[in-house]
Amino acid sequence: MKRYCLSLVILLAVYSSNLFAQQHMDVQILGNAESVNKKDNVLIIKTKEAEARVWIYTPSIIRVSISKEHSLDTSFAVVKEPAADIQYKDNGNTIEVTTSALKLVINKSPLRFNFYTADGRALSQDDPSFGTNWQGARVVNYRKLYKDERFIGLGEKTGNLDRRGSSYVNWNTDAPNHGPTTDPLYETFPFFVGMHGGLTYGLFFDNTHKSYFDFGASTDNQTSWFGADGGDMNYYFFGAQSVAQIIEDYTWLTGRMEMPPLWSLGYQQCRWSYMSADELLDIATHLRKDKIPADVMYCDIDYMDHYKIFTWNKTTFPDPKGLLTKLKDMDFNLVTIVDPGIKIEEGYKQFDEGITKNYFATYPNGEKYTAEVWPGRVHFPDFTSKEVRDWWGASFSALTEPGVEGFWNDMNEPAVWNQNIPYMVKFGKYYMPEIRNVYGMQMAEATYLGTKKLMGNKRPFVLTRAAYSGTQRFSAVWTGDNSAYDAHMLLGARLVNSLGITGMSLVGVDIGGFTGDPTPELMVRWNSLGVYTPMFRNHSAHDTKHREPWLWGKENEDVIRKDIEQRYKLLPYIYSSFYQSHLTGLPISRTLAINYTQDDSVYSEHFQNQFLFGDGILVAPVESTRLSEDVYLPKGEWYRLSTSEKYEGGKIINASAPLTDLPVFVKGSAIIPMQSVVQNTKEKGDGILKINIWNGTKANSFVYYEDDGTSYDYQKDVFYKRTISFDPTKKEISLSAVEGLFASKYSQIELVLHGFDREVKTIKLNGKASGLAFGNDNKEMIVKY
Ligand code: MIG
């Protein structure tokens, strides 16, 4: 009996201590302002619960950070500093911070942050009841949800273009076999654009912990909310009144891409894996023999010795230098894969060095964290340390010395077999929950900066699977292990477009679908969409059938070849578009929501996959089973690229969509520089730059850009740049004077005018009127220089 009583007491004690713990998970809501101060350029408002800080970055960017500690105020994403000063007006109940573009009205009791345009139209507001609040370490912000509010963004997220009514988690995850609604995937971009009542705004929640976004999915359409398992309520609010300008501001803050090596924009042939140097060379030779233009071959994990990073398999890849020489002789570049896990094996250089120097992630007691991945048991480098990043970067000499110029970073979520990395594992000063979402980006940074150093003045190409906001500064991304079915192809287009909203311009998907075997129709269709994907890579898993272009029958190979040729024809336009992205952050693949924000049709499920590819081309992805498709052409004039047939926009058309002709349209007045087919980006070609212009009623201009495609000399003005303009009222086409020190690889310019009927009256070259000559065809006028 006595014993029985005792255990009851213990039981009660356990029970009540649980209750006690639960009390500590109570919700705490940000309360009244108790003090308002300005310290240098920061406005500081204290409440009982926390401290809020406000900075102005630019007139259209204001940062708010609400924290209980403000101890570690660092960012992996942000590369800019706030403005030197902040002015505010204390009205008693409210505080106002006003810039030329934004008005932030801070309600003091309780403390709430409400954003308006400078002329007072409400952009986005805290929910008056819940605002910012905490449950233990979890911090959440509730916002007013407007009736007509839409949301786009968050980068690599499945689901619809319009994210209203959906919720998402950011927790970088190896997601093989994911489907069109799986969440989360590999990458974290906690940045979205909201729009309502004709207004737009952006919000970047710079918090690396596991985070959550709910766009009215679970609150009866009353509020939207976002939050994280830890860290601060730290966000940047963007007030520009166009989606393009918001993207420009977001990439101003988080950085923009450097010019990619031109070769990385050509066709890329990958496979898990080409098992030997001989097989790799066979494939490369076959591409050349069949005259399928291509620039890049890949080594997936099997080139290594027992998956040891920075090694080569001595039997199957006995002479890396020889392999690279042969590839270079055929004008191919090679990309090799690296994973983060370092095999535990004494005598293996990276393992020994990592142990001696204490470069690996540990448990809190200093014991190394061990997991299993491809190499067997591994340790993970702590990429949060600069010293470790430098060490990692220098290790690439094993790859750069033989001549590799591209570096594929895989498994960096980080992925481990059958287990979650324990939350107590430490990467430097960070525990896993705080660092997970940036681990891949840190690896990509180490890879990019390291290989850049090793390669002198040459541009490395880095491709990463895991990422966080700001990754565009270091690397391209692809969307991971997609699957060989139509809905996945369409999802891929949406993922690429969504990643473009969050600053990632050089993005690809595995053409054909990584998992499973595509039908020949799907392969052909997907390849034709690949032409209009910023990074164009054919890749497939080890347990699928081979996917190279000649494996689909002669007829299909001809279609695939023709499409890849189209990619190469478009390269002058694509490269110029990357230059635009380098300067402004605007992506190459642009959801129609960027340019046609207020047009409801672009958000409809049927048209949401359509996108602009650069300034002038509209692409409508079509399932491989459909040979015609309804396409929505936004207001304006359009031409089908393949036939020059003209359409009035602002309506739905039924476009023919045979597998030989993906529905692709050009805008009226579009200016698209092209070239003749070449077999790779190193081939000089016929030396003719073909500037294609389509007739239209709107004035238009295009910045044509060229440089050597491989070095950083463009940062020292060694480029060739000129503005091409078309003015329909003056019936004039002009090519501005050339800027920059680079000599164009084209010795001739051809103006190819579509739909003009001899209407052009003047052509100006460097500001001076120049000769006008018509070709045979009235419609297609060719002028040569
Ligand atoms: O556990 O390196 O997403 O592109 O081919 C799979 C082998 C590891 C996953 C990548 C995929 C790559 C594969 N990797």
Indicate the topology.
Layout: H1 2-24, E1 27-29, E2 35-39, E3 42-46, E4 51-58, E5 61-67, E6 89-90, E7 94-98, E8 102-107, E9 112-117, E10 122-125, E11 132-135, E12 138-144, E13 150-153, E14 167-170, E15 187-188, E16 191-196, E17 199-205, E18 211-214, E19 223-228, E20 233-238, H2 243-254, E21 267-269, H3 277-289, E22 296-299, H4 320-329, E23 333-338, E24 342-343, H5 349-357, E25 371-373, E26 376-379, H6 386-395, H7 397-400, E27 406-409, E28 426-427, E29 430-431, H8 432-454, E30 461-464, E31 467-468, E32 476-478, H9 486-501, E33 507-511, H10 520-530, E34 535-538, H11 554-584, E35 589-591, H12 592-595, E36 611-613, E37 617-619, E38 628-633, E39 637-640, E40 646-648, E41 651-656, E42 664-667, E43 671-675, E44 688-694, E45 700-706, E46 720-727, E47 732-735, E48 748-754, E49 762-765, E50 768-770, E51 781-784
Parallel strand pairs: 15-31, 21-22, 21-34, 22-23, 23-27, 27-30, 30-32, 32-33, 33-34, 44-48, 47-49
Antiparallel strand pairs: 1-11, 2-3, 3-4, 4-5, 5-20, 6-7, 7-8, 8-9, 9-10, 11-12, 12-19, 13-16, 14-18, 16-17, 17-20, 18-19, 24-26, 25-26, 28-29, 35-36, 36-37, 37-42, 38-41, 39-40, 39-42, 43-44, 45-46, 46-47, 48-51, 49-50
Bound molecules: ligand MIG.
Ligand MIG binds at residues 272, 300-301, 337, 410-411, 465, 480-481, 514, 539.
Strand order, largest beta sheet: 2-3-4-5-20-17-16-13
Distance between the first and last residues' Cα = 106 Å
State the total count of DSSP E strands. Answer: 51
- Average pLDDT rating: 95
What structural category do the secondary elements indicate? alpha+beta
Tally of alpha and pi helices: 12
Q: What is the 3D shape?
A: globular
Percent range for β-strand residues: 25-35%
Task: Tell me the helix content.
Answer: 10-25%
Q: Using only CA atoms, what is the Rg?
A: 28 Å
